[in-house]
Amino acid sequence: MINLWDIVSVFTDVTTILLTLVLLLVIGYVISMRERSGIPPGPPFWPIVGNMLDMRGKFAGKRHKYYAELQAKYGDIFRIYFGDQLLIVLNDFESIEEAFVKQKDIFSTRPLKQLWVVKQVSKIGHGVIWASGQEWKDARRMAIRSLRDLGVGKSTLEERIKDETNIVLDYLSRSEGKPVKVHEIMMKATTSIISTVVFGKRYDYSDPEFVQIIKILEDAFTDMALFTPVHRFPMLRFIPFIASKMLAARNAVLTVEQFVANRIEKRKKVFDKTDIKDFIDVYLDMCANSESSTISDGNTRRAIMDLFFAGSDTTSTTLDWAMLYMVLHPEVQKKCQEEIDSVVGDGRMIDWSDRSKLSYNEATLLEVQRLGNAVPMSLPHTTDKDTIVKGYLIPEGTLVYANLYACHHDSRYWKEPLKFKPERFLDDSGKVSKPPATLIPFSIGPRICAGESLARMELFLFFTNILQRFSVSTSGSEKPSTEGVCGVSMATPEYTIQATPR
Ligand code: HEM
């Protein structure tokens, strides 16, 4: 006969075993998460998820505000946990410089093994952004050479940017006072410029390939937040909603990779080493000269995707902030236009060579970058070995971010940091004095933005040529806010402009 007590005792045994196991796991976890002495201070954290849940509620889309609160409480260097991964944020210029410049050999690696999703998407190659060591040096050289050979600072690329500017100006003319979304049109323009750098040709905005690239770029930035927990908990990818988004993203990326691959194959047949026109030619030339053992078709495909990812949204978001500040500060807009009128007039387009004479415009763009912070944090870096920054231990394998936003809002470097004041960049003679070292929208150190010179040329030519032809104002009745939404880039709040011909 079945004895009831036997059944109860079996359950009790199983419960005891399970409870013991859970207890052991918790003890094991607590021991493994015991913090090494000397690391920077930071907020309390949960087992397993660390501080991941802190960025919900009032901090959703407001990572910069969360970090500002932590900086006020724990100082210029603080730590949080991304799951069980130690993450350190450097918030002031001195610590960013001490890490990324003075200890560049320790801080220039990208954290691949700490970020599962990145590891997956960069299987065909690490491109520029996710490569490290020699592979990164070669890929970066290839990217910079293609920008240089195409003529950043020479006329060819300038002509292409001006052609694209004309398309934007036409679009604004045709808008006839109707509301315009700046980011939407600038995203097309900046993506088209990357196409000319990479493939040697611009796309028509309605070309299906182009439409697909734009969609992938936009989705990549919106889906990034959704994929964040998957980096540390890859099992989450099996949750149907996340799984379907990841599959869609993967398929979209594979499609673009495929047409990049087709273009490389086609070019191999007609490659002419005496006529280097674009990134693909630079790649084939480097292969022909056996310049590097790390450069492969896969890596090149990835590097091409990187230029699209790193070069379109960043530049268009900066221009979005520029127009927002012009709407909010008509007096600054007027001064920019008066300077353009007196230096260039309205008889021709503004050239890159006019830059030194358009100091107020230049100062305005610097101020847009300082206050808008289109790219609020550096990309993640990691440490190759234990090291010390400002007296704190940064252990090997830590995720490290430079908080560029904090640096640009720091009252120790900037008088009235929250005010939009282009004059802060002008000297007594009204010229742009050398910008302070603490202005670092492109980051610093060997990992500094590889497209800085292209970005600066685009910002100047789009911004000044738009203001030469149009006055911009808000198309809504309410004054737009300046509360950004912080992802990889800092998006402006939704607003539209009205462009009135001058
Ligand atoms: C206003 C526009 C732009 C801003 C504010 C910006 C800012 C940045 C920042 C902050 C980084 C991270 C540096 C770090 O991790 O320390 C970066 C990296 C990078 N940017 Fe830009 N960027 C802009 C435009 C561009 C353009 C137009 C391109 C190329 C066409 C580009 C290509 C890259 C690449 C390839 C990297 C990775 C560099 C590396 O890992 O070595 N960026 N950018």
From TrEMBL:
Coiled coil: none annotated. One of its GO terms (biological process) is organic acid metabolic process. Heme binds at C449. Keywords: Heme, Iron, Membrane, Metal-binding, Monooxygenase, Oxidoreductase, Transmembrane, Transmembrane helix. The chain crosses the membrane at residues 7-31. Gene3D superfamilies: Cytochrome P450 (1.10.630.10). Pfam families: p450. The keyword Metal-binding applies. GO terms for molecular function: heme binding; iron ion binding; oxidoreductase activity, acting on paired donors, with incorporation or reduction of molecular oxygen, reduced flavin or flavoprotein as one donor, and incorporation of one atom of oxygen; steroid hydroxylase activity. Belongs to the cytochrome P450 family. This is Cytochrome P450.
